[in-house]
Amino acid sequence: MSETKIISLNSKELVDISQVGGKGYSLIKLSSLNLNVPPGIVLTVGFFEDWIKKIKNSDLYKEFILQLSQNNNECQIILNKIKDWSLNNLVLSSSDKQDIEDNLKKLFPDDYNKILYAVRSSSPEEDLAGASFAGNYETYLGTQFDLLEEFILKSFISCIDYRVFKYKLEKGFTASDIKIAIVIMKQVNCDVSGVGFSINPLNNDYDEAVITSNFGLGESVVGGNKSTHLIFKI
Fold this sequence. Notes:
Elements: E1 6-8, H1 17-32, E2 40-43, H2 49-56, H3 59-69, H4 75-89, H5 94-107, E3 117-122, E4 139-143, H6 148-157, H7 162-171, E5 181-186, E6 192-197, E7 209-215, H8 219-223, E8 229-233
Antiparallel strand pairs: 1-2, 2-5, 3-4, 3-5, 6-7, 7-8
Helix pairs in contact: 3-4
């Protein structure tokens, strides 16, 4: 049986994190518990197999592997070149674009091409006990249907960013490995958003939950560029 390349967030079967990444896995799990998760899909790691092959077959990637084996400091330059090459050379096949459209049409039959979407990176290596990869990958909010391919690609190439490469080396991951899944979900038009912690991360107190929030879509919360509101609950 061929691997499923697109999985709905409301899937009743909890798939492996290696397929859908940390964010996708968590969203599917929350949805399976009947919690309020906006509808959407996950483009699995397997969905991007063709793009990954093209990158690995490029001369730039071969040069990157050579520099990596020599502990060369030029890795950041070559990774930026690979990202630029990807932006100019990687496109979705007509069948993949149709599959995305068909899956979104099932979820939003009346307005799939009118609503706004959040295009969210979901790495199989993020949100792990010893490595969060927080802030390393790119997510794009308020994306129109006609621009999905552009922002899927931009989110995808964030997995070959130098900061990801450097973090992988620090945490003992295989730095040359390229893998990522991407979540496409309905954009929530919210007045206030934030991040909740079931354990207080400031003092490691298991008896305190913490919510850090702000007005708007929450980019200022995860980006750390504005003061946020802290709510403690015992």
